[in-house]
Amino acid sequence: MSLWVDKYRPTNLSQLDYHSSVSARLSALSTSGDFPHLLVYGPSGAGKKTRVLSILNELFGSGVNKMKIDVRTFTTSTNKKLEFNIVSSSYHLEITPSDLGNNDRVVIQDLLKEIASTEQVDFSTGKHRFKVIIINEADSLSKDAQAALRRTMEKYSRNIRLILISNTTSNIIPPIKSRTLLIRIPAPSVNDIVQVLNKLSSKQEIPLPESETERVETLRKIAESSERNLRRALLLIEALSMQNEKLTPTTPMIQLDWESVIKKLAFNINRERNVSRISQSRSTLYELLSHCIPARIILKKLTFELIQLVNFKAKSQIIEIAAIFDERLSLGSKAIYHLEGFVAKSMVAIEDSV
Amino acid sequence: MSSAIFGNRKESSKSTEVQERLLPWVEKYRPKNLDEISAQDHAVTVLKKTLQSANLPHMLFYGPPGTGKTSTILALTKELYGPELSKSRVLELNASDERGISIVREKIKNFARLSVSNPTKSDLEKYPCPPYKIIILDEADSMTSDAQSALRRTMETYSSVTRFCLICNYITRIIDPLASRCSKFRFRPLDNQDALVRLQYIEREENIKLQENVLEEVLKIAGGDLRKAITYLQSATRLHSTLSSSSLSNDFVVQDPDSSNPNSEITVQSIREISGSVPDDILQNLINVAESKIFDDIFKVVNDSVSEGWSAIEIVNQLHDELIFDDKLSSDQKNSISKILFETDARLTNGTDEHLQLLNLITQLSYIL
């Protein structure tokens, strides 16, 4: 039994529920036979991957759904062996080079060149003679790896098309941007999500209230607490309907454990600003980090919780501090220093403002 | 290599035509000889002289992207050797090839060491065929400094049979000993007139329907980068031609306002959408909330623009254009604004969280405006 998110994932462009103009563009592109490199960007849970897979479906037919996972080994220049997972069908490949950290350049150079310089031999099944390579999390590709992409994209455009998926275009170097067609996928609006959830409830049995208004209200509440993230909304409604016998507008939303921990931490920081609180928050932060919550997400969430509690002057100061520590987090290597530093600094900021 | 295979294969003319059509215009309209290169008069005149005198120094081309550095050297090799001979005489390496120190020691050295191959008679009649090979190191600024130092002696020892051409964006990343061995050519960003001529040529060749001012907008967004300009133009054309043809055959409801245009001319809006630049109203909205100084509004607007997927770096760039040229602001204000913009830009490049940085940027701006 698969999750609803996967079970009801649209498989072709005409099934997509929102952003119909983007879908129209994509379907026009995929039918034209002249398919460019794409850079698909947008916040998480907006449906980037779904759209990309739908394009593939449109391009090559259902053959793309027969996927397999290969483990490939690459050797770096320092003779280090790297193992790397590749999801592939006979028409496309999907890689997440950021798994390899700094060695992603090797994969880009070796793998892409190997695929790019061999031509598709079998013309009988596919309409197109190129292979599509999907690169996930393209924004975390190192600059070296991106530089390696530059010429490959031009030189082998006969045999491969790249689809880069990323959350932002900020970390993509300009030469790549100028070689791709940028497709922006905005997050779905709350109304869009309600619509999708409503459609889901017709396919799947969900214990929603009978009356139309209450039903819409319940869905709206779920949609709002998902912060315009469709994946989250779908997971939330699935979890809710497992836990509760009946869903009503008053059903309490599930709050994730780590979120409530951070909320409590923010509350404590605001209430009590002294050294012993810092050392107490250290253990909380360690706890969060050891549960694999990324430090950046902790920082972001903590900032947003804090600015809800404090007055205007402290708000802007805390944001400024957060921006500084955010940078330090991404440059430094030990997260706890920066998180603690942020806690201490924001205590000072709050102290100053009262 | 693959092009060689394709050249020999007997294909029907129709399929080569299709191939031709599928080629990116950047490749299709790459200048074929030195005369076709726009704007870089200085470099072109010097290089033309070498065509006559058959002597060539080591060269270092530098300049911003899309100014024709690679095109120039490719055109030069074509004019010097012709298509057949250049296979054995030219080695092109770029950042997509492994270029560590081992490659410099082996591959480059081996190629540099080879004696010059003999040109065929027919080549000799048509091309000058000077007695040296050319090694092109494209994107040389991404080579490590170790690899660069390994080149030093190689360049000198084999200078009787080999010339190097280094191509880079930032001359500061090339180590001094290498730079001093080359004659340098600076490639200026194309001014709009030169670029416009080229775009108009492509427009005629490809038979594109454009609305007024589209080419000017393309050039404005591209900012002197001809490759970018051509890519945008091609993407826009592709999108529009396919939209118009598919809306006839498909019963897809096309809600896009600019695609409902029956002639499907390319509009200024579609160029902007393709380039990923932020629409004016969103930008203006951000500036307005910054001026209003109401924190909750700022929070909300920033939240919205992040979830709409607009790229923070693009917002920073466009805010810069918008605010720095605003005559209503004092120099002091502009001073502080550019400082914040610069900081945000640096942080974003370090891979920080867009949402936090953008929020910080706008709240800081609200103090200044």
Automatic annotation (TrEMBL), chain A:
Its main location: nucleus. GO terms for biological process: DNA repair; DNA strand elongation involved in DNA replication. Belongs to the activator 1 small subunits family. This is Replication factor C subunit 5. Residues 34-197 form the AAA+ ATPase domain. The keyword Nucleus applies. The lineage of its organism: Eukaryota, Fungi, Dikarya, Ascomycota, Saccharomycotina. Signal peptide: none annotated. It comes from Wickerhamomyces mucosus. It is found in: Nucleus. InterPro entries: AAA+_ATPase (IPR003593), DNA_pol3_clamp-load_cplx_C (IPR008921), DNA_Rep/Repair_Clamp_Loader (IPR050238), P-loop_NTPase (IPR027417). GO terms for cellular component: Ctf18 RFC-like complex; DNA replication factor C complex; Elg1 RFC-like complex; Rad17 RFC-like complex. Keywords: DNA replication, Nucleus. Pfam families: DNA_pol3_delta2 (PF13177), RCF1-5-like_lid (PF21960), RFC_C (PF22534). The keyword Nucleus applies. One of its GO terms (molecular function) is DNA clamp loader activity. PANTHER family: REPLICATION FACTOR C / DNA POLYMERASE III GAMMA-TAU SUBUNIT, REPLICATION FACTOR C SUBUNIT 3. Coiled coil: none annotated.
UniProtKB/TrEMBL annotation, chain B:
GO terms for molecular function: ATP binding; ATP hydrolysis activity; DNA binding; DNA clamp loader activity. GO terms for biological process: DNA repair; DNA strand elongation involved in DNA replication. GO terms for cellular component: DNA replication factor C complex; Elg1 RFC-like complex; nucleus. It comes from the Eukaryota. Keywords: ATP-binding, DNA replication, Nucleotide-binding, Nucleus. InterPro entries: AAA+_ATPase, ATPase_AAA_core, DNA_pol3_clamp-load_cplx_C, DNA_Rep/Repair_Clamp_Loader, P-loop_NTPase, Rep_factorC_C, RFC_lid. It is found in: Nucleus. PANTHER family: REPLICATION FACTOR C / DNA POLYMERASE III GAMMA-TAU SUBUNIT, REPLICATION FACTOR C SUBUNIT 4. Belongs to the activator 1 small subunits family. This is Replication factor C subunit 2.
